[in-house]
């Protein structure tokens, strides 16, 4: 079976306000154990490789199988970090060892009177049979930002 070779671009911006100080939201991103907690480290995941190296040039790896489904692998490189201000990464995703996408993502942290405004901007390139997955990525990211909110409330 031949795979049609194509690429699709998808971008989105998501903004969330959290009723906690910027330093608290920052900690949820910059502390490996804490980040692993809100990213979905539950009994519904069969965990694979995990690496966390929060520094410019550092690499993160998060591999897991959700509910016995396909193996998902995330590999990121931090390209810019300004404490309590922004995080920028490039990252690649694989599904069952097939490279599905490459993305550039930023997280901006802004102090507001109610706490913290987090703005996430992402641009992804989706390859071959995954060319239509852009909306799914946005929806998945929405879920992660909701999980972060739950974590910060907990």
User: Widest sheet: strand order?
Assistant: 1-7-6-5-4-3-2
Query: Based on DSSP secondary structure assignment, what is the total number of beta strands?
Result: 7
Strand content: over 45%
* CATH structural architecture: 2-Layer Sandwich
Please estimate the helix content. Answer: 10-25%
User: CATH superfamily, please?
Assistant: START domain
Most strands sheet: 7 strands, antiparallel
Tell me, rounded to a whole number, the average pLDDT.
91
Layout of helices and strands, plus pairs?
Elements: E1 7-18, H1 22-30, H2 32-38, E2 45-51, E3 59-66, E4 71-82, E5 86-95, E6 98-112, E7 115-127, H3 134-153
Antiparallel strand pairs: 1-7, 2-3, 3-4, 4-5, 5-6, 6-7
Summarize the structure.
The chain has helices at residues 22-30, 32-38, 134-153; strands spanning 7-18, 45-51, 59-66, 71-82, 86-95, 98-112, 115-127.
Q: Could you please describe the fold and organization of this structure?
A:
The chain is an alpha+beta fold. The protein has one domain (7-153): START domain (Alpha-D-Glucose-1,6-Bisphosphate, Chain A, domain 4, 2-Layer Sandwich), CATH 3.30.530.20. Helices cover 23% and strands 50% of the residues. The protein has helices at 22-30, 32-38, 134-153, and strands at residues 7-18, 45-51, 59-66, 71-82, 86-95, 98-112, 115-127.
């Amino acid at each position: 079976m031949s795979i049609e070779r194509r690429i699709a671009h998808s971008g989105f911006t998501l903004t969330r306000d959290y009723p906690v100080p910027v330093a608290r939201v920052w900690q949820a991103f910059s502390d490996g154990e804490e980040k692993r907690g809100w990213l979905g480290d539950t009994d519904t995941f069969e965990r694979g490789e995990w690496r966390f190296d929060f520094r410019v040039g550092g690499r993160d790896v998060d591999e897991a199988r959700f509910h016995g489904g396909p193996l998902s692998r995330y590999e990121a490189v931090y390209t810019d970090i300004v404490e309590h201000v922004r995080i920028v990464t490039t990252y690649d995703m694989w599904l069952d060892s097939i490279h599905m996408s490459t993305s550039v993502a930023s997280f901006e942290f802004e102090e507001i009177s109610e706490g913290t405004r987090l703005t996430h901007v992402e641009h992804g390139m989706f390859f071959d049979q995954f060319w239509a997955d852009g909306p799914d990525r946005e929806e998945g990211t929405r879920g992660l930002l909701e999980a972060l909110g739950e974590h910060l409330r907990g």
